[in-house]
Design goal:
- By secondary structure, this protein is α+β, with helices and mostly antiparallel strands.
- It contains three helices and four strands; from the N terminus they run ββαααββ.
- A two-stranded antiparallel sheet has the order 1-2. It has a two-stranded antiparallel sheet with strand order 3-4.
- The longest helix is centred in the middle third of the chain and has 18 residues.
């Protein structure tokens, strides 16, 4: 039988259990094997507990644009460029092409 991990915090209650894992499987289109379910539930509980601990940090005096250094990302001029040789190199390997497009068989009637 799978354990049910409960995470309690002021203002909200979250339970990481088999039902939640099943919902996550459905949303992510993944399948967790039965022998790994208990381990995954424990790991998810640890993750939620860690993230929940972050809410206890006092960030009142921290600027919302805080960064570890004052160097900003360098901005370069956005200059559009088109090198037609790339298109030619790609299309020369295609079985069929025309007007700079791939020609493929019709698959929808």
């Amino acid at each position: 039988m799978l354990k049910s991990y409960k995470i309690i915090n002021i203002g909200f209650y979250m339970q990481v259990d088999d039902a939640l894992l099943t919902r996550l499987e459905k949303l992510s289109f993944l399948k967790v094997s039965d022998d790994k379910r208990e381990e995954i539930i424990g790991q998810l509980s640890e993750i939620v507990t860690f993230v929940d601990n972050l809410s206890e940090l006092n960030t009142d005096g921290v600027d919302d644009k805080f960064a570890m250094n004052d160097n900003s990302t360098t901005i370069r001029e956005d200059i559009p460029a088109c090198d037609n040789r790339i298109n030619e190199d790609i299309l020369k390997n295609a079985p069929q092409s025309g007007d700079n497009f791939f020609i493929v068989p019709k698959i929808i009637e």
